[in-house]
Amino acid sequence: MTQASLPALVAEELALPVDPRVTAMAEAVAALYPGAARAVLFYGSCLREKELDGLMLDFYLVVSTYREAYGRGWYAFANRLVPPNVFPFEHEGLAAKYAVLSEADFARENGPEAGTVSVWARFAQPSRLVWAKDEDARAMAVAAVGRAAPTLFGFALPMLDEAEKGDPLAVWRRGFELTYDSELRAERKGKSVSIVDTDPERYRRFGDAALPLARPLDAEKARKRWRRFRRKGKAMSIVRLAKATTTFAGGVDYLAWKINRHSGAGIVVKPWQRRWPILGALTLLPRLLRRGAIR
User: Fold this and answer.
1) What does pLDDT average to over the chain?
2) Taking the CA of residue 252 as centre, how many other CA atoms within 13 Å lie in the half-sphere pointing to its CB?
3) What domains lie within the chain, and their CATH numbers?
4) Torsion-angle region of residue 166: left (phi > 0), alpha (psi -120 to 50) or beta?
5) pTM higher than the cut 0.90
6) Cis link prior to 84 (omega < 30° from 0)?
């Protein structure tokens, strides 16, 4: 059997059907940005769930430019300076959050020139293109997502022993282990490995197709790059968290809910932290780090 190309695999996976309520929600998100919305992608753990009630769905909205999406003002500036902006959304009884990136930023952040692992680490995993403005927008999304897996492989391969480099599942596991260590994460230790184990056949097919496209650094450059990813990624996680309190109503409560759901840390938000959400979110961090709720 002829091995499928990575672009073909990506296009096929992005086109897989989803719950009609997810499609309706994506269309409603796009409708908030008439003239600017280009594509809406559905990603994250909810892809594997059949019962969506009570969950927080995850979307990425790709827009033409931030100026077209927001006009002038804080949102455009913040999205350009510290991408992405994240907003809450509810539709037909379902809850979601959506992150906003421009077409240029979405393409860049899926590639090796990305400043952090945040986007390409997520889109190396399964996702669905649930709304596209037109065929050009669809092709843009497929091309951008298609950069994610080779980017992960390019950075992960130099961090493996020679004997492991020919095993795509070993590359995936090491890559996700490194990306999880490059952000503040609430998930329990071992989550990065379990991602691959949920669908090893998928990761083997995508890995076989991504391997020839990867451009590995030499080992020393790769180690330095991962150190930069860790420093910048954790710092940017804090900055994005603080910024999200200006775009995400109840952002501190959502943060506590998400951390408690993944780690069982028992975080309780105090009234003053709701009144002063940026300071409240930042003051949670030392406690969370001491408890091991985030790493």
Assistant:
1) 86
2) 19
3) 6-238 (3.30.460.10), 249-291 (no CATH)
4) alpha
5) no
6) yes
